[in-house]
Amino acid sequence: MAGTVVWLRDDLRLSDNPALSEAARSGDDVVVCYLLDEESPGIRPLGGASRWWLHHSLASLGRDLAELGVHLTLRRGAAASVIPALLEETRADTLLWNRRYGLAERNVDAGIKVWCGEHGIRANSFQANLLFEPWAVTSGSGEPYRVFTPFWRACMDRQSPRAPLEAPSSLRGGPPPVSDELEYWALLPTTPDWAQGLRNTWTPGEGSAHQRLDDFLDSRVEGYRTNRDLPATEGTSRLSPHLRFGEISPFQIWHAARERRDAAVSEDIRVFGSELGWREFCWQLLYFNPELATKNYRPEFDAFAWESSTGAELHAWQKGRTGYPLVDAGMRQMEETGWMHNRVRMVTGSFLIKNLLVDWRVGERWFWDRLVDADTASNAANWQWVAGSGADASPYFRVFNPVTQSRKFDPEGKYLLRYVPELADAENIHEPWKGRSEGYPAPVVDLKESRERALAAFQALRGT
Ligand code: FAD
């Protein structure tokens, strides 16, 4: 009997999973495997919040597969040794996976493909996690796009993304290979267990991802265009961690949103679609700039004079104690729930980079560890966007003012109070230092002075 190994990675789902569907179609004995690879060269280890998510996502996937009569095989180690060993052990003649787009991951996959070729094993890969393959959308001159709007226009001019696939109704599970115990991977925090807020906020897994999409399209998509900017309102889909781990595919979201499209919400759906477009754009940037998380996209930024990144101000930012309520609320929201509202991500990022003059990479790494949706492409590209060092970036002179931003987007201070409760008695919630506010820190920097310092530093860069 021929055997197929499906190697799952950032695609922890049964539906719209082309590799799994192909295995089901083949009628072969199927082994479904997830490999925790923290050893292959260049692979970035997951941050703490992502490890928490991965544990629960794998547990959920394991249960879903068990209902189909297939065991989820867990292995740990470098792909170059573990995958060939599994193929030999199971005597499989086919290996299937859905594509990944980071350079280190592509190198690993290419190596495995070569090994398969040398050992008479058919290796096949599929497009599953991006609506548009990064290399498929290029400008007229064949170059990758550097600006979002023409990129997304070019995407929209192409053929509409394919329809999503149903989950296989049955899979033929052969004798299950030996598997690690998920608990032994120690992905969950224990001493201390800081994940209570994550447990209160999220339910990882494919079923919950679809529930979230349905809730969003049924009751929250109307008004998305404006509500998405209001951090106190649950105005966005909160699908980002589900997308990050591939519990739901962009094709499923895209088509479900299209089906919901009626006149009243068509503009909201269009804007929501273009946010998915930003995700595609970030991956395209990463594909063509593999060092996006560590290297300035615009090399002129290499000469920038960042302040030391180890001071008390950085610590205050990390802990949500800068004395600026919107910055502190955002940093505490992330610490508690593993997620931060997009507008507040821009404000906290801008504060770190521009008011504290800390290198954007320090912030990128902090978010990487704390976000349940930490994503190699979106995190890096957005940090570079805020810094001004990225593609299609926010101009260097745009310094988000946290006071103006909270007055505009959280005028009643509901979001601020949710995460900074000690401001309950503050006379002036947006500028607590202007009145009585007990137990809340004084501002770590003066907004005006630090803004001018940043503009001078960026101006100096332009002169170099
Ligand atoms: P929705 O508004 O419902 O949007 C739907 C989907 O579109 C999101 O789930 C996401 O996949 C995508 N999307 C929306 N905005 C963006 C964007 N600006 N860039 C890329 N994709 C986007 N997003 C991540 O997924 N992972 C990250 O690590 C990440 N880091 C960020 C760091 C900074 C400094 C900033 C400013 C933004 C970052 N973002 C990141 C983008 C954005 O904040 C989140 O995608 C969004 O807040 C997720 O919430 P949602 O699912 O409710 O979004």
Short description:
The protein is of the alpha/beta class.
Helix content: 40-55%
Sheet having the most strands = 5 strands, parallel
Distance between the termini: 67 Å
CATH topology assignment of the largest domain: DNA Cyclobutane Dipyrimidine Photolyase, subunit A, domain 3
Number of domains: 3
For the record, the CATH architecture of the largest domain stands as Orthogonal Bundle
DSSP summary: helix tally: 19
Strand order of the largest sheet: 3-2-1-4-5
Bound molecules: flavin-adenine dinucleotide
Mean of the pLDDT scores? 95
Number of strands: 5
- Strand residue percentage: 5-15%
- Full CATH superfamily name of the largest domain: DNA Cyclobutane Dipyrimidine Photolyase, subunit A, domain 3
Describe what you observe in this structure.
The protein is an alpha/beta fold. It folds into 3 domains: 3-129, Rossmann fold (3-Layer(aba) Sandwich), CATH 3.40.50; 130-161 and 206-288, Serine Threonine Protein Phosphatase 5, Tetratricopeptide repeat (Alpha Horseshoe), CATH 1.25.40; 299-462, DNA Cyclobutane Dipyrimidine Photolyase, subunit A, domain 3 (Orthogonal Bundle), CATH 1.10.579. It contains 19 helices and 5 strands. It has helices at residues 18-26, 48-67, 79-90, 103-118, 148-157, 196-201, 206-220, 224-227, 240-244, 250-259, 266-288, 312-319, 325-337, 342-355, 360-370, 376-387, 402-409, 414-419, 447-463; strands at residues 3-8, 29-36, 72-76, 94-98, 122-126. It has a 5-stranded parallel β-sheet with strand order 3-2-1-4-5, sandwiched between helices. The longest helix is centred in the middle third of the chain and has 23 residues, at 266-288. The model has no long low-confidence stretch (mean pLDDT 95). The protein binds flavin-adenine dinucleotide (FAD). Flavin-adenine dinucleotide is lined by residues 228, 236-240, 243-244, 275-276, 278-279, 282, 342, 345-346, 349, 367, 371, 373-375, 378-379, 382-383, 386. Flavin-adenine dinucleotide binds next to helix 9, helix 11, helix 14 and helix 16.
